[in-house]
Amino acid sequence: MINIPKGTKDVLPSESYKWHEVERVVRDLKHRYNLHEIKTPMFEHTELFIRGVGKSTDIVNKEMYTFVDKGNRSITLKPEGTAGVARSFIENSLYNEPLPLKLYYITPCFRYERPQAGRLRQHTQFGSEWFGVDSPEADAEILMMASDFYRSFGINPTVLINNLGCAECRKKYVETLKEYFKPHIGDMCPDCGKRFETNPLRILDCKVDECKAINKNAPKITDYLCDDCNSRFNKLKKLLKNANVNYKFEPMLVRGLDYYTNLIFEFIDEDKKLGQNALGGGGRYNNLVEELGGKPMPVIGFGIGIERLLIYLENKGIEVNSDEHLNVYVANACEDLTPVIEITKMLRDNGVSAEMNLTDRSLKAQFKYADKIKAENVLVVGDDELKSGKFTIKNLKESKQTTLTKNELVKYFKG
Ligand code: HAM
Hints:
The protein is of the alpha+beta class and 415 residues long. The protein has helices at 16-33, 46-52, 58-63, 82-91, 136-151, 167-181, 190-198, 209-215, 227-242, 288-291, 306-315, 338-349, 363-372, 383-388, 409-414; strands at 36-37, 43-45, 66-68, 74-77, 101-110, 122-131, 158-163, 247-249, 263-268, 278-284, 299-305, 326-333, 354-356, 375-382, 390-395, 400-405.
């Protein structure tokens, strides 16, 4: 037998309703927040992620699914959604659309990571990227939307927020950080030794105990924010408070992707219902479009892991709404199936969810099967019913029986 590749997961028929609910919630947000869907390819030129996500990140260094195609091009399965959307925005001149342009996507992402519960080699992200807005109001609104997404499932995870500052304040901060870390390099892990050269901010994110201890006393970005960054950040916090967004300021938060400027955030699992504690994350990236060859363009976005959300809900014992309702199972007690097909078709044509017997099971076995597949009703079509024009419907939930004419059936099932 050939098994599923490590770090991947089948969505089985018994749980696909959860994915339908995620899609329904996303469509509802699309409607309420005026989002537009964008679909980009599953693979891109490797260079896009090297330049977009960043050379010093774990994603680019260790986790990409990269291969050379038959045309000798280096191709990578997308490890995240943002870089492809930014590429498409530039390539298709979407800057000519009325701005702000609020996009969304649901996409598989591929990262060669060490699999664990909630950490997969293929995972799915619901992401949203808002082009052409650069205000604390936009920052607040996108966080309100992400919170709305989680609230639709009955949860309200904390969102940690931090501010990496604009280019000016960040430059000053990185210099100070380097000065602080310099005497400690020998005590830090080899990865942080490299980060010191490539991206010292990422040292703050290190999970190794020695580095964590050094990080405790590291200078905080918020002490280096310029007046403008400071007042925007304060405004954002006020707006989030007014909108009841469950946020917490975390000055040590940094993210594992290089493109962020200013605001960054992460939705976390505070009650540790998930091995991996980030449910979703994002931030502002005002330089990426220009770095990829476009005009300067402020953008803010997020990515939410769907598999992690579903594990989190399950571990918290929260049920996901189901769209699986079979109104009626049409059982037959007659030899000729033609009238059974006709009645089933009439029901379906009128929007009733109906299943008919396709086997040679006895009537009793058909009732058993209908119960197993959770049909709400069974409609029996037999010679007697056809002759009298009266059909018996048994409601399996309430063990109630009703007799109706053919013309009354649709109305009855549609309630
Ligand atoms: P990210 O934090 O790398 O950000 O991923 C976003 C979310 O995807 C994570 O919080 C997590 O829920 C989920 N995720 C990531 N890796 C895995 C994995 N291996 N297995 C399961 N779930 C995973 C981004 O990808 C950015 N593109 C987000 C963004 C959009 N920033 C701005 N716009």
